[in-house]
Amino acid sequence: MSYLHERRGAVGWLTLDRPAAMNSLSRALMRGLHAQLDQWRDDPAVRVVVLSGNGRAFCAGADLKEVSAPVAAGEPDVIDVARAFFATLRAFPKPVIAAVNGLAVAGGLELVLACDLVVAAESARLGDAHANFGVFPGAGGAAVLPRKLPANVARLLLFTGRTFSAAQMERHGLVNEVVADAGLAARAQALAEELAARSPLVLARMKRVAAAAADKAEADALRHELLEFRDHQRSHDMQEGLRAFAEKRAPVFKGC
């Protein structure tokens, strides 16, 4: 299956498990991850997803053996499978945390870019690296990296193929937290549990509006936010939150 999945309370963990191949993205791996996301999207018991890797790499990108191999008639190539998987990951309605345990380059960096929050081990290194092998990004490297980093920093990573340390990426705003290697899983779980205690409906709506805002004028983004607010006023979670505030207790959210 080349990945592991488990629930830790309300948190679903997806762990890339091809350590000998530095967790490179094969068709089988991406299809498996895609299917698991589809399952968890509709599972109210899973409120947050954490994505990580086994071994010394988070993900070293696409499986170049598959990229260069002939594709059988009727079989989608790697980029077609990647396009569908990454689209699902970016649009996933629940928060996704990247727990970057090691090297994240090329498609591995694109995985990080598709997540909402990033916790990285001190030893992790991140970069685009496509230029090192004459490969063009196909899952967001050139399109999304300049939206996440200052433009000149993004171009430096794209053009040179260099990797930056987790601390450097934190300074540039791509990484939210850097932690000791041994504490990565615990910190990612703690952050995920903090998010899981919030209203899943609020988080899904916030994520949707925030994702769309970058492509809208401010006035249009504010109208979108107001429409979501009007819908949200009628929700159980908002009424429960207001009751809990008045009653000085913790709210019990249902995601509806």
From TrEMBL:
SUPFAM superfamilies: ClpP/crotonase. InterPro entries: ClpP/crotonase-like_dom_sf, Enoyl-CoA_hyd/isom_CS, Enoyl-CoA_hydra/iso. One of its GO terms (biological process) is fatty acid beta-oxidation. The keyword Lyase applies. The keyword Cell membrane does not apply. GO terms for molecular function: enoyl-CoA hydratase activity. It comes from the Bacteria. Its EC number is 4.2.1.17. Keywords: Lyase. Belongs to the enoyl-CoA hydratase/isomerase family. This is Short chain enoyl-CoA hydratase.
